[in-house]
Design a protein that fits this description.
There is one protein chain. Helices cover 48% and strands 12% of the residues. With 295 residues, the chain is an alpha/beta fold. Strands 6-5-4-3-2-1-8-7 form an eight-stranded parallel sheet. Helix 1 links the parallel strand 1 and strand 2. Helix 4 packs parallel to helix 5.
Length: 295
Amino acid sequence: MKAYSLGLYEKSMPPDLSWREKLTAAKEAGFDYVEISIDASEDKIQRIYMPKAERLEIIRAMYETGIPIRTMCVSALTKYSLGNDDPKLEARGMEILEKSIELADDLGVRVVMIPGYDVYYEPSSVQTKHRFLKNLKTASHLAERAGVILGLETMENEFMNTVEKAMKYVILCGSNYLKVYPDIGNLTNAAVQYQTDVLEDLELGRGNITSLHLKETKPGVYREIPYGTGHVDFEAAIAKAWEMGIRRYVTEFWYKGSDTWRENLVFANRMMAEILDRQENNSDAGAAGCRSLSA
């Protein structure tokens, strides 16, 4: 059995597919699991209210296809941000997060990813940052109760575009159920912006990183960059992550109406699996050498 798990972001597939079809497509492309999206659209938000019978159907589809849903991206917290000055938007964000944790618990999702924004559409302030921290502490307690890990995603904004900045909130919350879920594409852009070392930034999260988003970017461009056309050094990033003990990865890219979307899944899987396989083989060779020396 291989030593890592490679997941697929749900939005890389056509949105009109059923869950069984999405899971099957992920399996056929070689992936080990799928990351579900709870974005700001009302149809995605309604997932957190789905009845038990519908949840059971998704679980049945996971078992029958052999591909589980194991991570969740709650990007609805951009619109309904946890630090929002509008009490209604803030309360809606907390409701979405609480219900997302409950859904994750029911489906067997291990990590619920929170975007690293105190606010998204509004200006950040001391007050929005304090409010974000207050609500993050509350969310951490909800996660502790459910046994579901929260992962702060590093984003494209000044508030939390590095692991170092995310670790500030991990330390301030002090919860075993709040960790960091970095996006290597966003981290790479931040490293270019600040003229810093992206691998050193990753190191600052040692022992607190749940998994790694594998997304391609270009300087100043954060979305919809095809793999191999940007500036992310996936080989170096995965090598560093592997050395740090990270074994769960998700390819993050988007379906944009192409008829070749299935081929795109296969391409992404092969590109990243080849890098991950090299890391596994290298670590196996190193372990064998150590056993030989101690024999």
